[in-house]
Description:
alpha+beta; Rossmann fold; 8-stranded mixed beta sheet; 4-stranded antiparallel beta sheet; 38 strands; about 35% strand
Amino acid sequence: MANDQPQPETAPYGSWSTPLTAERVSASSVTLSDVRVDGSDVIWSEGRASEDGRTQLVRRASDGDTAELLEAGQNARTAVHEYGGGAWWVRDRVVWFVDWSDQRLYRRDPDSGRTEPLVPEPEIERGDRYADGDLTPDGEWIACVREHHPRGDRPLDVRNEIVQLAAQRPSTPEVIVSGSDFYAAPRWSSDGRWLCWLEWDHPNMPWDQTRLQVRDLTTGSALLVAGGDDQSVLEPCWQSDGSLTFISDRTGWWNLYRWTPSINAVEPLVEIDADIGVPQWLLGRYRYAFLGDGRIVFARTRDGLDGLALRLRDGTVVDLQLPYTTVSAVRAAADDSVVLVAGTPTAELSVVRVTLPDDRTAPQVASLRRARELDELEVDERYLSVPEVISFPSNSGRTAAALFYRPVNPRYAGPEDELPPLLVAVHGGPTGAASAHLQLGIQYWTSRGFAVVDVNYGGSTGYGRAYRQLLRGAWGVVDVEDAAAAARWLADQGLVDPARMCIRGGSAGGYTTLAAMVQPDTPFAAGADFFGLADLEVFTGQTHKFESRYLDGLLGPYPAARELYRERSPLYHVEQLSRPLIVLQGLEDKIVPPNQAELIVEALRRRGIPVAMLLFEGEQHGFRRAETIRRALDAELSFYAQVLGFELPDSERIELLAIENLTYIR
Length: 666
């Protein structure tokens, strides 16, 4: 058969024209983060870039009809822990949600569609923040997390607690659990006898050490079920038989367990060499669900990829043959089905129903809220680069991991004597992980001729507790070494140009970017820092309560370890930074304040190093607005074009970025 595809045109890597423009990447961009089931209806949240990043709630009825639940201007997003999560919940068609503007808890009436605040207006604006609620069996009361910010808003003055309030009418919340630094997941048992919750204290983060407590509401007595002693417990959930299930990493992996109150005993339900849990940056997430017949559907991460598995009634665990490589939410939908937020290497996150009629029948999948279709964006699937799981040697005998994306564009091929430039992507957290579902922000680069490696450096999640703890006391060392090792290994394999390797990252990934750039033997020709940390000592005194002691584990207690904080701060080694840098920062960032960007940029200006900075009004920690996403992508591309020496495609009319002190083109 004749090949009717034209021969690819030879053009320098980086200069390829692509339909995956910044405008198309951000067009109709929606972030799906959670899903709930209410009878036969399914409700999910949509973070919409085209609406200034606000979160809308959408209900899908059993007949397929969908309806938006929030009025114009309403935004279901909580600022608890600043990262939020658990901002809404539902029952019997009633929706309770926290509005971003004032952080008050609202009730939406299902018949009239009107909303009313259930809690008093706080003394100071946004001073009381609510999240992660649960209703009593009779639907009359809510237990939820409240974060109280007094005047001055000093991190250590912020008070976290669990409160109870009326679910159907305005009332004054009553504090029912307090005394610990942080709380999550208050949950009522189905018979109304028990209340459980998670708690932890500084300097621990929830992936370090948490405690699962229960209170017998008939006697008032409390009991520690699990946790403490370097054990992280997540996702407690009462079952209809009165037992309490939860995730714990007591074996070194976040696996699934059950506590039975009548005998006060914990037993394992699923113990495998894979992580079912994920780090609790966001509240209210669940990665497992019980079917009506006792089977359990759960997500698990292995070798950097998510998958879905099934625990049968006899305890046997089987992997489900489904294409999903990212699963962010799992909810029971019926006796034999679950609803997921999930994605694949060639599809963005979507909402799907997976039905499992019996143990021998292949899963049946129905799309409830599909991802953006490539056809709608006028993008052929042949432009997509599918991630490859790689591992490579790093320092001190470590083996690190990553997802590698090759440059792909059916219209172009690189010159025979040229290798592609490399972008080393560093995820945030640093307790986080690279995601393997389709991300058009990555394809923007690969379809232009860049290779991309998304590094799961030591400290990343999804590889067990021991791997996650490689970063303890070693932030700015292990992550930097692994990022550099990934780049050098790919160059040694002949896959990328060793002279054109760049590094980019946001938040903690921005810090790793800066820390790598100030190494005297850095392999990176340029870097892109998105709201990253330049001065760890300044960050410690300015950030929010949730992360105010995070660096105790990553570096050491402050101020005792002050010299180490200065030693690991890129700002104090700026004399070793000689490669071009672009810095992008939101001006309303409460987690990494804008002065972190300004500090590093001013230091480079004084030294005459090529540098560019873009500041974005109205953006917080992470860019949510479509216009910001477009501008940031194109500015970064223009930056690389100038410092690496390739031409931008004429068809896209990308604005030339002004780079201070740039007097040459490589």
